[in-house]
């Protein structure tokens, strides 16, 4: 095969990176695939703004059908993002016998099952390495080199915006709102950062990781998701005192035939490798029964890092097409009829250690009342810290031994009704047994 022609939907930051890579490393890609990978057409609503990359020899269009119905184009790269029209475009490309490469985690987390089924019916491939971790090749590793393992856990820091915010709060003692504003000014956070800071983006990525690790269909609504908006500099300081750092963690665990699928701020030990993932960097840690713990680390976003993963998928397709092979590996790495639907463990049944902060009046007997309410729910205190009083109030911070989430919530709901408690209690889950 002398040439493989590619169409690109979406000419934003990542799209510009893909164009740059395909242009600058064209000869290298030919040396590695035995064919010329040619970008024929780019489609975007805005085809006039200068992206700082060379588009000589490439057709620029506002009409998606110029890619989706072109018989010469065999690979479509979808970088529009979101649910629609990305879903419709992907399905139309697949229906026309084209392979699809996408970085769209939201699309696959919500509509993946429909898209994978269409790809099977039309004997084409859907590849999405760039959807999780930007340039980190974790999905191909799960499907490839680590395919011989049964996975027990997958843990990830997979949202650079949240990790940047928490890193600065940790290193500078800054408040959340202050750092978020700075992140927006620097381009690390969107003008509307809701999907990032509320944990939705991380939940999308966790859906894909769980599907590949455990061979199961995951419904996004079953993934417990909690963002970082309630984290204060005070919590960050107390975490350090107890020997922890706070990270927004995607957590997937196999637990007796059920899957724990949750996204939330988590305290992890300072000497643990994930605790040293700073700024906009991402990291994913997997534990397999034979390989043991393995951690992937790198740039989780950005033009060049994400473009690297996108083009890596195109190269994989090019090699298969040159060899006359299609669907050598299914999208999730399992045979299609072996993908099951495992139950998700309700968040109330999760067992964790907890950090809990109370703001209480400085009165005799307060600690006894708090300890009594916790003890009545079977929650034992591991450590306790009472900070310096402010006027007539004092923060009381405790950590617990293992406790069931539902018991913790009920105990705190009761404690928050005490007249000596001045504001709603704060709690953060602790993960310090991560093997």
Automatic annotation (TrEMBL):
The keyword rRNA-binding does not apply. Pathway: Amino-acid biosynthesis; L-methionine biosynthesis via de novo pathway; L-homoserine from L-aspartate: step 3/3; Amino-acid biosynthesis; L-threonine biosynthesis; L-threonine from L-aspartate: step 3/5. Pfam families: ACT, Homoserine_dh, NAD_binding_3. Its EC number is 1.1.1.3. Residues 355-433 form the ACT domain. PROSITE patterns: ACT, HOMOSER_DHGENASE. It comes from the Bacteria. Keywords: Amino-acid biosynthesis, Methionine biosynthesis, NADP, Oxidoreductase, Threonine biosynthesis. SUPFAM superfamilies: ACT-like, Glyceraldehyde-3-phosphate dehydrogenase-like, C-terminal domain, NAD(P)-binding Rossmann-fold domains. It catalyses: L-homoserine + NADP(+) = L-aspartate 4-semialdehyde + NADPH + H(+). The keyword NADP applies. Belongs to the homoserine dehydrogenase family. NCBIfam families: PRK06349.1 (NF004976). This is Homoserine dehydrogenase. It comes from Geomonas anaerohicana.
